[in-house]
Amino acid sequence: MAAIIDDLHQDHVNAAQVLKIAERTLGSVEAGEDADFSLLEDAMRYITGYSDTHHHPVEDIVFRQLRKRSPQMAAEIDAIAAEHDSIIMKGKRFLDSVAAVEEGALVPRSALVNRGREYLSTLSKHMDLEESTLFPAAATMLDESDWESVSKRIDCRPDPLFGTSLDEDYRRLWKLIQLHDRD
Ligand SMILES: [Fe+2]
Q1: How many domains does one find in the chain?
Q2: Buried b or exposed e, range 149-171, using 16+ CB within 10 angstroms
Q3: pTM of full prediction above 0.85
Q4: What CATH number did the domain enclosing 63 receive?
Q5: Distance 32 CA to ligand 1 centre (A)
């Protein structure tokens, strides 16, 4: 049942592509160019609307199961869970700033870039840490009955951007991801 870990890993690969688009847009903001704030907003809507409300909760279920099997990893697991909370909070705050700019609010470019970069780097490091520590631990330490219990608590939710059916709201983002994939 390590398919759940495969799905979580794929979510990370996908999220990294979205973060790359967000990073490029922040680069344009920083350079004083005519930045595509609407695209940045789409990227953050995807992260806060899918990763934060589906991906992190699934990980929390897996990690709680791992905590039961490997109490020695409790501190590490609790730190990751706490990071999920702060990432969700920071993501919402950054999305609000981007949406405010879209609506014409005067937000200093440097403040937006700093907030965005801090968010992107925190999320990126967080995913790397999960990939290098908790995912391999879960894959090796959880047995079939653990995965069965985990899967019972997971609700399946289609990914609106990388899933089988593309949500029209993300079409522009999807096209750009395809384009940069070939870079
Ligand atoms: Fe994750």
Answers
A1: 1
A2: ebeeeeeeeebbbbeeeebeebe
A3: yes
A4: 1.20.120.520
A5: 32
